[in-house]
Design goal:
nucleotide binding; 6-stranded mixed β-sheet; 962 residues; alpha+beta; 4-stranded antiparallel β-sheet
Length: 962
């Protein structure tokens, strides 16, 4: 237990309430709450002597990596007065990625003794003991890590979760600092030389594996399975060193990690009772969310890095083989075959899964930054680190951080009037170590050793790469159309939900196809009751627009409408019809609607599918005509698919460019930054002035902030937007990536709201108007923060951007083709749009394509999405002819490359007004195009008009006129 004792003592070296009791508590922060907790855990109020050197060194490294030292007054008893901040009196939080200062209300009304009592009771209640009553250091550390940041009192609420580690540099939380010190202490305690290392691990392939999908269920399964594989790898580190050892992604609050804490590590089940994952009976259960990226970075003991990487590789591949065997056993059982080791499919399974997934790893030891020890602590020495980095930079190019302005300033140390303000130690070199890790990891990916897989028969119908699994190898020579009595034809007859007629799957495709069934059963065992997973088909997503109108708009009194509704009600009364799974927001509408309307919404998709699969075109057309008479429009046949991706994430992590790094002065509390003392010292000490103006290099706290922001976005925000605010279905949200299906009438607004909340931007008024009252009340966004359902989240901030690809496709279009188009659209948003952009492409069933690629926002005012939404709604409005679009497009096509701006304004306004449209909107559009696209204004307007006209058609917009 020495490792866990060391880590627990490290995690307790500062009290959580430190920022609120400094300068207010005479006993000092080190002899209050933490002293009592140490006594309860270790039998002494002081730090245990056997681990004190490790803890002090870990704190020394962590502090140097994240913030400056501060000069002491003569005699070394107190910090200089100009550095002292009474945080309770002047509470300020600084956004770590933007530098924006957030002034909170004063907290002087909360007495220090109350704060200390609340904190002590909170942490004392998290101490776990063994059967003999002795503290269990490992479980207690896990409890502190997971539940320590949970607010222990209502009067502290949001502040507790965001309390700063240092009141003078309030840009990172106390929790981030405690996690880092614990991680470093554990790595130092676990290495014979006391040396930590950075370990990066990634799993693949990603895009190809996810894109091998025939159905929406396949798409979800591929994303979710990769997230599960990633957790299996991270779990190795968590079991050996604790979850605080994972620098990013942030694991606190991730449902898979919570489940591990409860079921594998023995944390009390009642502590998790309030979590949705422990009780939700539908696929709204967070366990169904694919919310982990395929890469992680951890702090580990140097001598364990290679063994950890080897264990991770073994564990993730064992998991895939285990899933493969369970999949094949279930398939064989379904078709009445017994498992035998000599079956061809068993051998195929082992061969095809042998090297999956690909695992790439790299490790960099802190020893590269350490020199000989002085007073028991290693000195900073960059000789080996520079040599290693130089090999990965082009010859003659500066070697990153070591040749940058920040290290030039920091390496010399800073002395102010005889007191040391900054004295670098090996922790200061975290930016260079991370740079080396990133480059070595990238190099490792270029080396892909694998054993060639010999495949001689026909390949899987999903990917065309691996043979389909067979009971008789001679069948692998049979071409499609000639295959009878194969494993897959027999399964299709028994379980059409697992495989469609004609499909023949390889091992990986089979795992993906059965993964929804296997994982649903797993969640059922966790929740302890029946769990239903709903697969929303592309057809249902398309029809959801019409179904929402059916439930939201009361039927008029026209006889034809009443007769049509009666006919529909009679048709869906068939008990043999399955109920279709609906997007969450539509399902809520159905629960509130009349019984007839709800039954129509749930069963019409199945009825249409029945006629289509039976190739009964006449009955299908008659049904669609009946729906048209009932709703006033034909049933919608198109759905939307969006892919949002954060821009320049590598640059955000590396902080290598000015736009991604703050000056040191921006991170200081305004009281210090703006003080006369700092101005005077800066004038007299050029070294301090240089320091304040230097761009801050990446640090563990910065990486933790990014990880925290992305964790909240993927776990909370993305699902809230896609499924609670709009009629959509989230497929994947892992860090800065979001993949989701969205009904076509909600696509523009869903894209825009995701973009705003990713950066914590103030949501524009036009977008707020598109939300219902409940959705608007649930969140507030601005200045880089998001308050959602009474929780306050850090976001990436307004300097961070994201790009989005979106596709509108017919529900019968091959999903593989739609996904390829989606990836192309996302790439176009980043390239043609210049990032912080979107690319919307509409794939028409009859052929042809229209779309818009543009920036989200413009500094001058109008944003492209808002304009496109306004144009769509104008063209859909009753009394407005869509000839406003057709006539304008015809005229615009004849204009020169650079049309006159006044001509654009006058003619577009005339065309709109003539057809009953909005003249002011025409002027805004013309000005926007002429200002931002002077060489292609006509083309941009044509793209806007044709895209908006398609989206405004009466089958897909509630305001459209029949």
């Amino acid at each position: 237990m020495t490792l866990w004792k060391t880590k627990l003592a490290a995690w307790l070296h500062d009290p959580a309430e430190k920022a609120l009791v400094l300068l207010r508590d005479k006993t000092g922060h080190e002899w209050g709450t933490v002293a009592k907790l140490r006594e309860a855990l270790f039998g002494s109020r002081a730090i245990p002597t056997d681990i004190k050197p490790i803890l002090e060194r870990a704190d020394w490294y962590a502090a140097a990596a994240d913030r400056p030292q501060w000069p002491l007054e003569e005699g070394g008893a107190r910090y200089a007065k100009w550095t002292q901040v009474d945080f309770a009196e002047r509470p300020v939080l600084i956004h770590p990625l933007t530098g924006v200062a957030h002034q909170l209300r004063p907290l002087t009304n909360i007495p220090p003794e109350h704060l200390k009592t609340v904190s002590h009771d909170h942490f004392n209640g998290l101490i776990l003991r063994d059967a003999e009553g002795r503290p269990d250091y490992e479980k207690t550390l896990l409890a502190y890590w997971r539940f320590g940041p949970d607010t222990p009192a209502k009067d502290l609420h949001h502040l507790w979760q965001n309390l700063p580690a240092d009141t003078r540099v309030p840009d990172h939380s106390i929790w981030a600092h405690l996690d880092l010190v614990s991680a470093l202490a554990g790595a130092m305690a676990g290495d014979p030389t006391g040396t930590p290392a950075l370990l990066a691990v990634s799993f693949g392939p990603v895009q190809g594996f996810i894109a091998e999908a025939r159905t929406t269920s396949d798409l979800w399964a591929g994303s979710h399975l990769l997230a599960r594989i990633a957790w299996e790898g991270m779990r190795v580190v968590c079991e050996r060193l604790g979850p605080d050892a994972i620098l990013f992604p942030s694991l606190r609050g991730v449902p898979l990690v919570d489940r591990w804490l409860r079921d594998a590590m023995g944390l009390p089940g009642e502590w998790f009772q309030g979590e949705d994952w422990a009780s939700s009976k539908t696929d709204a259960n967070p366990l169904f969310a694919a919310a982990l990226p395929n890469r992680f970075v951890a702090i580990v003991p140097t001598d364990q890095a290679a063994s950890l990487a080897g264990e991770i590789t073994r564990r993730v591949r064992d998991l895939v083989v285990k899933l493969g065997e369970e999949t094949l056993r279930r398939i064989l059982e379904e078709i009445g075959e017994a498992w035998r080791d000599d079956l061809p499919c068993v051998a195929q399974l082992k061969e095809q899964l042998a090297d999956f997934p690909e695992v790439h790893w790299a490790a960099v030891s802190w020893s590269l930054a350490e020199g000989e020890a002085e007073n028991g602590r290693p000195r900073t020495d960059t000789t080996k680190l520079r040599e290693a980095l130089a090999r990965l930079y082009p010859e003659g190019e500066k070697v990153g951080f070591l040749d940058g302005e920040a290290w030039r300033v920091l390496s010399q140390g800073i002395e102010l009037d005889g007191a040391r303000f900054y004295d670098p130690n090996p922790g200061t070199l975290y930016p260079a170590l991370y740079d080396l890790l990133d480059r070595v990891a990238a190099a490792a990916k270029t080396v892909r050793p694998f054993a060639p897989l010999k495949q001689t028969g026909y390949r899987s119908t999903i990917n065309g790469e691996r043979e389909w699994l067979t009971l008789d190898r001679s069948q692998l020579a049979l071409p499609p159309g000639s295959r009878q009595d194969t494993l897959w034809t027999r399964l299709a007859a028994k379980r059409p939900s697992w495989v469609k007629p004609g499909e023949h799957l390889d091992a990986l495709a089979a795992i993906k196809r059965l993964w929804p069934t296997l994982f649903t059963e797993e969640v059922r065992s966790i929740v302890g009751q029946d769990v239903r997973r709903y697969v929303v088909s592309t057809h249902t997503l398309a029809l959801a627009v019409s179904m929402a109108r059916l439930m939201e708009q009361p039927a008029n009194n026209e006889l034809e409408t009443q007769a049509a509704r009666a006919t529909l009600n009679a048709l869906v009364a068939d008990d043999t019809l399955d109920s279709a799974a609906l997007p969450r927001k539509l399902a809520i509408l159905a629960d509130k609607a009349s019984a007839d309307a709800a039954r129509l919404a749930r069963k019409l998709p199945a009825l249409l599918d029945r006629f289509r699969e039976a190739e009964d075109e006449e009955r299908r057309r008659n049904l669609e005509n009946t729906i048209k008479r009932a709703l006033g429009s034909r049933p919608e046949a198109y759905y939307g698919l969006l892919l949002l991706d954060g821009d320049r994430m590598g640059a955000w992590l590396s902080g290598g460019k000015d736009g991604f790094a703050l000056q040191y002065r921006q991170c200081w509390h305004p009281q210090i930054r703006e003080s006369d003392a700092v101005r005077d010292l800066s004038e007299r000490h050029p070294a301090l002035r240089d320091y304040l103006n230097t761009r801050r290099p990446p640090s563990p706290a910065r990486h933790g902030a990014i990880s925290q922001a992305l964790n909240h976005f993927s776990l909370k925000t993305a699902r809230f937007v896609v499924e609670d605010c709009f009629k959509g279905k989230l497929v994947y949200a892992g860090g800065d990536d979001v993949l989701a299906f969205v009904c076509v009438d909600d696509l523009l607004t869903a894209m825009a709201l995701l973009r705003c909340l990713y950066s914590g931007l103030t949501v524009p008024e036009w977008l707020l108007k598109r939300l219902d009252d409940r959705s608007r009340r649930r969140f507030q966004s601005g200045n880089g923060w998001l308050k959602l359902d009474e929780e306050l989240f850090l976001t990436m901030g307004d300097k961070a951007t994201a790009s989005c690809g979106a596709v509108v496709a017919h529900h019968q279009a091959p999903l593989g083709m739609v996904l390829r188009t989606l990836r192309e659209a996302e790439a176009s948003a980043k390239k043609a749009g210049g990032r912080d952009a979107f690319c919307l492409r509409i794939l028409k069933r009859a052929g042809g394509e229209v779309g818009v690629t543009d920036k989200w926002f413009r500094a001058e005012g109008d944003g492209a999405v808002g304009l496109l939404d306004a144009l769509m709604r104008m063209l859909a409005r009753k009394g407005v002819s869509r000839r406003a679009a057709y006539n304008a497009v015809e005229w615009l096509g004849r204009l020169p490359t650079r049309p006159d701006a006044a001509l654009l304004r006058a003619n577009l306004a005339y065309q709109f007004a003539r057809q009953g449209g909005d003249r002011e909107l025409a002027l805004r559009l013309a000005d926007y195009a002429a200002r931002h696209y002077p060489e292609a204004a006509a083309k941009l307007l044509i793209d806007f008009l044709m895209t908006a006209e398609f989206l405004a058609r009466n089958s897909r917009h509630p305001e459209a006129e029949s």
